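Annotated sample (chain length 102).
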Amino acid sequence: MPAPEVIIWQAIRRKRLKIKFRRQYSIENRILDFYSPQIKLGIEIDGDSHFISNKLREKELESDKKLAKKYGIKILRFYNSEVMKNLEGVLEIIFEEIEKRR
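Output written by the structure step:
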């Protein structure tokens, strides 16, 4: 697991939110970095491989929309650099979304 994912995983677990997140959760043809079935929230941490081409990026974003429409899953996306440079801001967004979806 890349360092930014480890950092997010540790923060989620430390917070003891009483909501379970699973790592590398598979749904249809997607593998979400983190997913909570209880509140239908997925978290994706995007590294360099997500920016190889605009076409691949657009395909991933379309897949996010499909998960939202078909299953009611919301996907939060963060860049590796965001996690490394602004962890508190990233966590604030995640925790606010968790509270909204409870």
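Annotation: The helical segments are 3-15, 54-71, 80-85, 87-101.
Annotation: The chain has a mean pLDDT of 91.
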